[in-house]
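Annex B.
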Amino acid sequence: MLVSFIIVAYNAEDRIANVLNNLLQQDYEHKKIETILVDSNSSDKTKNVMENFREAYKGLFRRVCVLDNPQKILPCGWNVALSEAQGDVILRVDAHSKIPADFIRQNVICMESGEKIAGGPRISIIDESSNWQCTLLMAEKSMFGSGIAKYRNANSPQYVNTLAHAAYSREVFERVGGYDERLVRTEDNEIHYRMREAGYKFFFSPKIKSYHFSRNSLVKMIKQKFLNGYWIGLTIGISPKCFSLYHFVPFAFVLGIIITSLLATFGLPQLGMLMWGAYWIVAILMAVLSVEKKNFNVSSSALPTLFLLLHVSYGVGTLVGLFKMPSWRKNSIVV
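Glycosyltransferase: predicted structure tokens.
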């Protein structure tokens, strides 16, 4: 099978070389891999890294393409790559990722068995080993801090609702079309919903491992959660069925904070006390469950507070997105 290996990157010169080196180490026949690299109008040397890779290794792979995504956002970049891809299998990974040597081969094995969409666990990692970095990683990997998507936590072969770093049969995109270019952060949610509606299943194999470098600061992590929530709020305006109820739990929590605070100002603090008591009990319990003995340190005690910050930032993002959604939907252009 010919595999189209796609990376879309923006200002990733410090990361993309690593995943390209991982690509060189793949144990799948390199002449059956076409590499499609898309630069999203980066202001750093990302495109130079891509072009240097093309010149150095274009004879090693079926071909190596470097393309431009002047609109910068990811769904536009994916569509640029899809318009060029010739592979039987379309395989997407992030620039901020790491893949083992058998990554492509394990995906192809699933596709050769008859699956149309396949993938495995995407594991969050860090490139620093400070106590604070380890604590941020624990918050990111915790089910309480990051979500209950099965591709994060499953350990046996099964069908799931969505995947990260997935491989797709070419026919999938030919049938459902490309990515919705109105969406900046929720393009996967929307297109995976269309794929499920078209009858495709997402096969999870624990043998297909990939790794994603987690945000290396609390500020970046909070910003990421806010924007994730924000784009969920906007996307409701065009594809409300692409989300599960758990996507709105932080939003419900923020609404709970607002409502119970208002009630408290009118002399009715009981509901707020009950909500906050239940929250902190669960947060502390999940923090204890998240801490591995070998990673326990003083900063681990901040986990309950980190959970709160992540939940509130995500929920506030959704609230802001929902508020702006009507005007955004009116002004957005359907591609």
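Residues 95 and 102 are 18 Å apart (CA to CA). The chain is about 50% helix and 15% strand. Further annotation is deferred to the next reporting cycle.
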